Structures are given as C-alpha cells and as structure tokens.
Amino acid sequence: MGTEDDLLIPPLNFAMVDKGVYRSGYPNKKNLPFLHKLRLRSVVYLCPEPYPEANKEFMEKNGITIFHFGIEGNKEPFVDIPEDVIRDALKVLLDVKNHPILIHCNKGKHRTGCLVGCLRKVQNWSLTSIFDEYRRFAGAKVRMLDQQFMELFDISSFKQTGRTWHYGGNGEHDYLIMGKTISLGTTCYLWTSLGT
Prior knowledge:
22% strand, EC 3.6.1.52, 196 residues, Siw14-like, Prot-tyrosine_phosphatase-like, diphosphoinositol-polyphosphate diphosphatase, five-stranded mixed β-sheet, TYR_PHOSPHATASE_DUAL_dom
C-alpha cells in the first residue's frame, strides 16, 4: 500500500480546459505532486495576494513560469474585473509556448471562470455553452456580473496571424489549439492580439 506522499490529489475544482490548458482553485502543498505530473510550463495566477513561498519554490524548482495577474473578483457595487488585465492574461493563455498551463484563483470559480469564458469566446463557443461551463464551476455562487463581463468582452482585437509554429514528432498525437485539431509535424497558427 502506498504512502500519503504517493497520493496524487488535484486542486479544488481541477479540470482540463483544452489540450495542455488546465484550471483549478488555489493549489496547496498536498496538490504539488499532482501538478508535477502535469509537467506544467506556466501558471496564470489571478489573485492579488503574493504567491506563497512553498508554491513559488515548487514552481522555480520545476522550471514553471508564474504569470501573476492580481485582480479582485467581480463584486457589486464598486469592484469590476479589469478588461485589460483579462486581455493580457488571455494573450499568455493563447501562446502555446506557455503550455501546458494552469489557470487558477482562490476557488477556481469566478476569476478563472471569466478568463476561461473569454477564451471560449475566442474559440467561437456560443454564450449558452460559455455560461453553462461557468455555472458548472461556480455552483450556487453564480455572479451575474461575471456573465455580463464575458458577454461584453470584445474579442475583435484577437485574430490569427501569419506566424507559424512547427511541431516535431511522428504525427501520433494531435493538439487541440484554439478549437482546431493540429497534428504534430504540421503547421499551426498562434493567436495574438493586434494591440501588441
């Protein structure tokens, strides 16, 4: 029988968003062996608080880049999620050089849900599907302001560019990148913002 150290325990609200893209709540020490198995390259951290030392040490030891976008949750009447920060986080998320990548906030519900919802808009999901996914993670704590934010989020500045990425390999695996299946060894496109 294995020891407690052998257990792989995912963080709260952990799920796969797309190939190489994951979401969760705040990982704690007992979740780090699980995260190690994902071979992450990057973490998008959406809380304003500094990252805990234990997590930072784990990330540094494993060569994982932390992209810190400190935002408050969408709460009435005075706190709104800043669209420019979500736009910057989305640029990081869309860059396949950062994959595998984990997005997280405290509980993996609201801020993470908004960023994933904006990704889904770029992927041309219907609003009904975006809201269904958001509600699945938010549970009884659905925020109408979050749904309004996702609905009004402007994706017109995101487009496919002519920049290409080539993947080596023998074609045995496919990557799902921005809603398109790309075989290894073929050309795929990186989504970038026109603003940069």
